[in-house]
Amino acid sequence: MAQWSIAPVIDWLLHKGRRLPTREAVVREICERVRTAGLPIERVAFFFYALHPQYFGVALYWDGEKVTVRPGDHDFLLTDEYRVSPAARISAGERAIRRRLEVPAGQLDFPFLRELQAAGLTDYVIAEVVFSDGTRNSVSLATRRPGGFSEHDIAEIEELLHPFALVMEIHSGRELARTLLETYLGRISGSRVLDGQIKRGDGQSIDAVIWFSDLRESTPLASALGEQRFLELLNEYFVATAGAVLEHGGEVLRFIGDASLAVFPTAGGPARAACERAAAAARIARERVRAANAARRGAGLPGFACGVGLHLGRVHYGNIGTPERLEFSVIGAAANKAARIEALCKDTGADVVLSSVVAAELGGDCASLGRFALRGLAEPEEVFALP
Predict the structure, then answer these.
(1) Rounded Cα gap, residues 142 and 123, in angstroms
(2) Which of 24, 26, 108, 186 could bridge across to 251 with cysteines, CB 3.0–4.6 Å?
(3) What pairs with residue 321 in β-bridges?
(4) How many CA atoms are closer than 13 Å to the CA of 213, on its beta-carbon side?
(5) Cα–Cα–Cα angle for 44, 47, 53, nearest 5°?
(6) Which has the closest alpha carbon to 203: 269, 253, 257?
(7) What are the start-end ranges of the H helices in the chain?
(8) Mind listing the pLDDT tens digit for each residue in 203-238?
């Protein structure tokens, strides 16, 4: 019987497969092509390490039909489940691990192999997939063919690993760029940079609700808590406030010490919709601050307070800074006005203060807090409380 060949799969991968838009698409197609070429694989798992603030890597599982993606958070690295896993051993330097499953279950050293055995699988192999920077990823394959993989099967798969690593590194680089841009610039701003808005001055005028939030009494809190505990408090505060912004379609543009600047673009739609999203985010932030304070006081820690100012207006949204150091932000009178409205939280005792424009869009029961002089404006501004 003629031996099967991996060559058509490699040819497809280097000429067409590398152009597929996502890692998931490449994984699904390559698994199907390997099986069509002659290797009876039933389950395949790919493990890629990642530079990401929330997880250390991602696993892609192919079950013969579809691809499932599962990120692994950083805490998983500390578990025994990971420490004794084949993927951890490959990461530590082993090139390949193979376990034949047609043996008594008691002889299987990795617990999950007993699950594969119970499902009727007969052989398991995991091998390194090394990127150019030395990152050691891995791919595992399992079959239910009696006798397992042949030596020819293993040799053919080894031929595929290097070109596969090249293609996956391209996709991982794209994912890394997107992750870093979205993490440090924001989802909307990061996408604009990836789309080519990278020159200083690139941008456009947009209508948006501008959100400005600030932590109250931060200096006494920092002195009382010390550096580490104050940093923990800051993160709690930002999760409560900026987290609510992100969940309601807003874009957090900057963290300025213990303050944050965000926008809810109208995106050509009705201004009221953007105002309602911003107001909903402010209400959720208010609830979360209360919940966080209850938990902190229960733990014997001081609580915190913050103010939010909301204003609707036109701003320039784009790249500003020096040629060597840019950031995506908003500039204009409306952005300045939002910050000055937030400062009125101190004078009014309200935790959320709305400009008259936002209050008019929201309608309902927004109660007037009075008229106040704002620096740079000739006439006093009437501001309102968020019900």
Answers:
(1) 6
(2) 186
(3) 326
(4) 31
(5) 145
(6) 253
(7) 7-15, 23-37, 80-83, 86-92, 111-118, 151-184, 187-194, 218-225, 227-247, 271-298, 333-348, 356-362
(8) 788 899 999 999 999 999 999 999 999 999 999 999
Give the C-alpha separation, 6 to 155, whole Å. 10
Cβ-based neighbours of 346, under 8 Å, separated by 6 or more = 216, 307
The reported pTM is 0.74
Structure tokens at 265: 């673009």
Q: Is the dihedral of CA 329, 335, 340, 345 positive or negative?
A: negative
pLDDT in tens, 69-116: 999 999 989 998 898 899 999 999 999 999 999 999 888 999 899 999
Which pLDDT score, from 0 to 100, does residue 1 have?
A: 47
Please identify which residue in the block is written with the tokens 């951890």: 88
Angle at 251 between CA 71 and CA 273, to 5 degrees: 115
CA distance 306 to 258: 10
pLDDT score for 339: 93
Task: Identify each DSSP E strand in 50-132 by its residue range.
Answer: 55-62, 67-73, 96-100, 123-130
Letter for the amino acid at 41?
Answer: I
In a 10 Å sphere around its CB, with 0-12 CB exposed, 13-18 middle and 19+ buried, how is residue 226 labelled? exposed
Instruction: Work out the average pLDDT over 138-152.
Output: 96
Q: Which domains does the chain show, CATH number per domain?
A: 7-184 (3.30.450.40), 194-385 (3.30.70.1230)
Write out the H or E segment, with its range, that includes residue 21. none
* Phi, psi angles (nearest 5°) of residue 360: -65, -40
